[in-house]
Amino acid sequence: MTIVLIGGSILVIVLLIAGVVTTVTSQQSIIEERLITYVGDDYIDEVEGVEAASTPLSDWVNVQVERTRWGGGVARNLAQADIKLKPGEYFALIVIAVVGVGLVTWFFGGQSVISGLIGAVVGFFLPRFYVNRQKSRRLQAFSDQLPDMLSLMVNGLRAGFSTVQAMEAVSNEMPSPLSDEFKRVVQEMQLGLSMEGSLENILRRIPSDDLDLIVTAINVQREVGGNLAEILDTIAHTIRERIRIKGEIRVLTAQVMYSGRFLALLPIILTSIIWLGNREYLMSVFQPDTMLCGFGIFGASAILVALGYFVMTRIANIEV
Q1: Most buried of 101, 210, 257, 290, CB within 10 angstroms?
Q2: pLDDT of residue 52
Q3: Distances from the Cα of 119 to the Cαs of 68, 125, 146, 217, 277, in angstroms?
Q4: Could you report the per-residue pLDDT of 81-94, keeping only the tens digit for each?
Q5: Domain housing 161
Q6: What's the chain's Rg over C-alpha atoms?
Q7: Are 188 and 302 part of one and the same domain?
Q8: Based on the domain organization, do 9 and 126 belong to the same domain?
Q9: Least confident of 52-56, 167-171, 205-209
């Protein structure tokens, strides 16, 4: 029985890693799916690296998940994190993580149901943690590249480029992720979508106040006219100063943020270590005559830890 459980746990973990690596390294993107919608299935054979790997079952699962409100939010988060997963595939990844981590903790936790449940909860949040981390990293990288992008656009506009040509130059010259997003904007406009609609799409994928300011300036200039190069130059200066101030604030508040995270995770880590190493000692407060006191201790501890973490994050959260 032990060999079967170990083999099953290893198999689940290997399948999880293989599925994540295979899907994340896929080259199919959102814009390629839109092109397939416009030009037909023949486009699949013309684009290198794009393969039809869907099945009727996976398509049905994706459709059912995308119809829910949760599926729409998951699709938006995956697009913002630039992870090549569909909502149905993300849901399957969560199920695999729950089962895999639950089996591992169940086996190493003395084959206890509570250990399995703790591992299942951790496995449920692992994919979400990874997506949120990738999303925050990508949005931060995009925001840091905006001043250089505006300088390139301003130079192109002053050299006689149109707005579309300046965006095309940005998509060719700038690094990822900014080049990828503006390449989608240019391709959407080439397919017939208006500039306002394309910029609205990139703003939906990249929820950034700085990008919102740029999109608003471009749309207003197209309606009422004006010197777009001068407007973008002023916006670039504002964004540079904002990034500089945000960097200084991030340095000053880094100690508070990491201290809050460490202090919030420390009780959980210590409780897990005691549960795995000396379970009798931990369960001594849950005996029939001390059970009420034990639940009170754990409940009060959880409330105080959550309250302390909330206060420390609010102190370090400074709006610029």
Answers
A1: 101
A2: 41
A3: 27, 10, 41, 49, 16
A4: 888 888 778 888 88
A5: 141-244
A6: 25
A7: no
A8: yes
A9: 52-56
Q: Where are the beta strands (DSSP E) in 24-67?
A: none
Same domain? For 64 and 35 the reply is yes
- Among 244, 269, 300, give the residue marking a domain's end: 244
Chain length of the chain: 320
Q: Which two tokens stand for residue 263?
A: 């202090």
Q: Are residues 109 and 200 in the same domain?
A: no
This prediction has a pTM of 0.68
Q: What is the mean pLDDT of residues 32-47?
A: 46
One-letter amino acid of 177: P
| pLDDT for 23 | 52
Q: Residues 117, 199: one domain?
A: no
Tokens of 61: 């699962």
pLDDT in tens, 217-271: 898 888 887 888 898 899 999 888 888 888 888 888 888 888 888 888 888 888 8
Catalogue the E-assigned strands of 202-278: none
| Six-digit token string for 288 | 């029939």
Distances in Å between the alpha carbon of 32 and those of 44, 46, 77, 154, 277? 9, 11, 18, 29, 52
